[in-house]
Structures are given as structure tokens and as C-alpha cells.
Design brief:
This protein is of the alpha+beta class and 157 residues long. The protein has 3 helices and 9 strands, in the order E-H-E-E-E-E-E-H-E-E-E-H. The strands form 2 sheets. The chain has a 5-stranded antiparallel β-sheet with strand order 5-1-7-8-9. It has a 4-stranded antiparallel β-sheet with strand order 4-3-2-6. The protein is globular, with a radius of gyration of 18 Å.
Amino acid sequence: MKATCERDKLLHAFQMAASVAPARSPKPILQNVKLEVTKDGAILMGTDLEVGVRIEVPGFAVEAPGSVVLPRDRFGKILTESSDEKLDLESDGRKAMVRGQRSEFQLPLENPDEFPNVMAFEEKKYHEMPARFFREVVRRTSYATDNESSRYALGAC
């Protein structure tokens, strides 16, 4: 895989995908975010096996398609701390290289085939609602959840 991307757009999408990836998990692969790069563009995926996020990332110039599993914490810090406008991403299967104008990082990789697939939403019918309304609906129903996690059916987690 080899591609050039706009750091700000990748950062915004990565933060949303990484918010779903758990900090601790019995499956270590879930603590990462998968990046799939095709000739059409790039897709970031994050999941904890209950909730999954699939985000199309704009601003990618693809030289060679492929997929990588990026470490959530390390790659997230690289994106937030970097001041470069564009980043070059390159992977040979064993490691990923992230290059900017004034920086270069090498990240170890895991097998992208082990990462569970997050399906795309292809339904024709769906409902849209303002985020403020959705937040209020969730707040009003949160009283019905159990504060302890001993009874999973009543808990919110």
C-alpha cells in the first residue's frame, strides 16, 4: 500500500473510528483501526464487535492499493502531534512508514485479514434526526439502566 493523504481529514476520520476501538480487549486486534486503500479512495474501520464504524476518508491520492491495521494510540498521537499538511503512508506488510516534510515514523503492523469486517450500511430506508434530539432521548432513557454491571440485561454497557 502506498498513498498520500491530507492530515487534517485523516485525523478527523481516525478519531471517530478510534473512539469505537476498545482500550483493552481479549482480542488485541480490536485495539487498532483498519485502513483500506483502493483506487476509489480510503476507508477507516473500527469495532469492538458490538459497535462498528466505517468511514470514507476524503483527500487520498493512491499510488498502490492495500490495507493496514494501524495502532490506535501510536498512530493517533502521530496525527495529532504532526504539523505537516500532507502525510505519505507506505506499507510492506511488516511495517508501516508515515512520512511528513519534517518527520518519519515506523509502526509495527498486524495482519489486516485478522481484523473483523465492518459492513457498509446499504439500507434504502432510514431515519435522520438532529444530534441534539438524539442526545436528549438517550438522556431520558438512561434512568432505566442498572448502575452495576452484575446483571448484563439491565446494564447500559
